[in-house]
Predict the 3D structure of the following.
Amino acid sequence: MSGQDINPFASPEDVNPFADPSVQAQTAPPAQQEYNPFDGKMAQQQPPPQQPTYNNPPVSYGNTAPATIDPQTAPTYQSKPFGGSVVAQDNTMRQRQEELERKAAELDKKEQELKQVQTNLPKANNFPPFPKFFPCNPCFYHDISADIPIQSQKTAKMVFYVWQLYCLTLLFNFICAMAYLVQGGTGGGVLFGVSILYLVLFPPMSFLCWYRPLYKALKNDSSFNYFLFFFIFFFQILFNALYAIGIPGLGTVGWINGASFADDGHAAVAAMMFACAALFTLLFILKVILLRKIHHFYRSSGASLQKAQSEFATGVASNRNVQAAAAEAVKAGINSQQQSGGNY
């Protein structure tokens, strides 16, 4: 009979599916059914909601201390103006370019000299550098950068400069001797004449006797030329000491004759003579230093007396003049024996 009470034309919204008491009993919790907001008992019975707990292990990130920077080891940055760095870079590049060009020029020069040596072309003499209008021609070939090894070029140049200073000192000695003669110094004529002789003879003789042997010794590592240089240069140093002393009649002005002339009241000429004596003293010191330095080169080069003797014997045997003289001597001996045999 209850199914007859249902109105089929009723709105479905009016039908409450939860109107069934059985459904209400299953879906509605008892707490909500009996809840009374104005009843304090329900508030006491209702447990507070609990937060969810997670049993995850704690995560540790190592040392959590804040990072610190040591000011002594911290990098420092210096700011430079852009324009200054560009200019410095341009100067550096320019210097490198100039150095490369200089090295290229030196290499070209070395290659030309090497080609000249390989082709066995004779080298033209260039020393002494006489002018073109001079009637004499150069007698020697002199080029330290081409003939002398690199490790010995500095020493060769020092010896060459000392030889030039020696020639200039002899010229100044001649001027002082002429001033001494003009001022009426005692023995001025002898001093002036001997100074002219020194100026004419000693520059070429010193070049041939001790500078040229050293040049050949450094060029060819020649023991014979080393010994020849040491022998002559030692006496050159002794004579240089006598020149600086200024013994009257020796041909040089030095400390003694300069001091004696200063006592006569000729201060200007005496000052010139003292300057000449100082130059001779400087030459004495420089020559002693050079002798020690060249002796060091001699010991490090492996030269010895036996090598000097063998070089001398080889040079004498290969000399054309010696060979011609020996041939003439042998021929004369043979002729004399033939003549003596014919007489018998």
